[in-house]
Design goal:
Strand content: 15-25%
Distance between the termini: 28 Å
Number of helices: 16
Structural class: alpha/beta
Helix content: 40-55%
Largest sheet: 8 strands, parallel, barrel
Order of helices and strands: EHEHEHEHHEHEHHEHEHHHHHHH
Low-confidence stretches: 1-5
C-alpha cells in the first residue's frame, strides 16, 4: 500500500494540467507518488455550479490544493475535502499570477504570515488529514532569509503547520508572467536546505527545476521530500521508475505500451459520460519521449483525438507507430 502521508515524492499542482484525467494517467505509472489537484479556489467550491472536488478512487494518495485567504471559507472547503476522501489539503501561497493576487491568495500571502497561520489553524481545527503549505522563498524585495524564517516560524507556530513545500525561487508579483516566475528568478536550493536545518522538526519538501530522479535523490539527502512539476508532465515515462528508485519497491517499471492500454477502460467510461478523447490523451502526449516514433505518436493523437467519435482505436493506431521501437528489457 502507498504511504498516504509521505511527501517523499510528489507531482506539483499545475493549473490546466493536473486535472483528474492527468492524475489517473500518472497513477498508472507510479503507486507511491503523492498527486495534487490543480489549484481550486474556495469560491469555486462553495459557489460554483460544477463539482470541483471530483476525482477517481484510483488516484490515492491525492491532495487538494486550495486557493483563498478567508479562514472560514478555507475551513469549509477543507472539511468538504476530507468528507470526499482527500488525503491532504494544501494552501497555495506560491502562485504569482495577477488573477490570483486580485483574489488575495497565492504568493502575495507571504506578506501576511499571520493571516496564513490563521487560515491553516482554521483548517486544522476541523479536519484530521494533513494541512500543508506550498510557498516560495520570498516575494519582491521581501527575499531575505530572515523574512522566510519569520514566515515559516509564524505559520508553523501560530498556525500549527507541520509541512511546507518550498518552491526554491522568489516570486515577482508584478513585471513577470507566471511562466517567467517559474524560470527567471534563480533557484536557491541551499536556502531550502538551511530551512530544514533550522526547523528540523518540520517536514520540508522542495519544488522547482527538478528534472531527474537522480536530482531528487540528491535533494532527499538534505530534505524530507521532492516535488516535480513540468518534467513529470512533459516526460511522464520518468514516473515509471519512481516507486523502485525512490520508494524501494521491488516491482519492475511498467511497460509504456501496457500503461497506455491500462487507460482504455477509464477512457471508455469517460467517453460514455460525454468526455472528449482529447481531454484525456492530451496528458499522454509525452509518454514515449526519447523513443523513435514519439513524434508520430504525438502527431497522430493531436490530429485525431478531437475528431467526432474518436475512441481507443485512435490510441491503438498511435501505438502502432511507436510500439515496436521500444527497447525490450534484457
Amino acid at each position: 500500500m502507498p504511504n498516504f502521508s509521505s511527501q517523499r515524492f510528489s507531482i506539483a499542482p499545475m493549473l490546466d494540467w493536473t486535472d483528474r484525467h492527468c492524475r489517473y494517467f500518472h497513477r498508472q505509472l507510479t503507486g507511491d507518488t503523492l498527486l495534487y489537484t490543480e489549484m481550486v479556489t474556495t469560491g469555486a467550491i462553495i459557489h460554483g455550479k460544477g463539482d470541483y472536488l471530483a476525482y477517481s478512487e484510483a488516484e490515492h494518495p491525492v491532495a487538494l490544493q486550495l486557493g483563498g485567504s478567508d479562514p472560514a471559507a478555507l475551513a469549509q472547503c477543507a472539511k468538504l475535502a476530507e468528507q470526499r476522501g482527500y488525503d491532504e489539503v494544501n494552501l497555495n501561497v506560491g502562485c504569482p499570477s495577477d488573477r490570483v493576487q486580485n483574489g488575495r491568495f497565492g504568493a502575495c500571502l507571504m506578506a501576511e504570515a499571520n493571516l496564513v497561520a490563521d487560515a491553516i489553524k482554521a483548517m486544522r481545527d476541523v479536519v484530521s488529514i494533513p494541512v500543508t503549505v506550498k510557498t516560495r522563498i520570498g516575494i519582491d524585495e521581501l527575499d531575505s532569509y530572515e523574512f522566510l524564517t519569520d514566515f515559516i516560524g509564524t505559520v508553523a507556530g501560530r498556525g500549527e503547520c507541520e509541512t511546507f513545500i518550498i518552491h526554491a525561487r522568489k516570486a515577482w508579483l508584478s513585471g513577470l508572467s507566471p511562466k517567467e516566475n517559474r524560470e527567471i528568478p534563480p533557484l536557491d536550493y541551499p536556502r531550502v536546505y538551511q530551512l530544514k536545518r533550522d526547523f528540523p522538526h518540520l517536514t520540508i519538501a522542495l519544488n522547482g527545476g527538478v528534472k531527474t530522479l537522480e536530482e531528487a535523490q540528491t535533494h532527499l539527502q538534505h530534505l524530507d521530500g521532492v516535488m516535480m512539476g513540468r518534467e513529470a508532465y512533459q516526460n511522464p515515462g520518468i514516473l515509471a521508475q519512481v516507486d523502485q528508485t525512490l520508494f524501494g519497491r521491488e516491482h519492475p517499471a511498467a511497460n509504456p505500451v501496457e500503461v497506455v492500454r491500462a487507460m482504455y477502460p477509464y477512457i471508455e467510461a469517460e467517453l460514455a459520460k460525454g468526455t472528449y478523447l482529447g481531454h484525456v490523451t492530451r496528458h499522454m502526449l509525452g509518454m514515449f519521449q526519447g523513443i523513435p516514433g514519439a513524434r508520430q505518436w504525438r502527431r497522430h493523437l493531436s490530429e485525431n483525438a478531437h475528431k467526432p467519435g474518436a475512441d481507443v482505436r485512435v490510441l491503438e493506431a498511435a501505438l502502432a507507430l511507436v510500439a515496436d521501437k521500444i527497447p525490450q528489457e534484457a
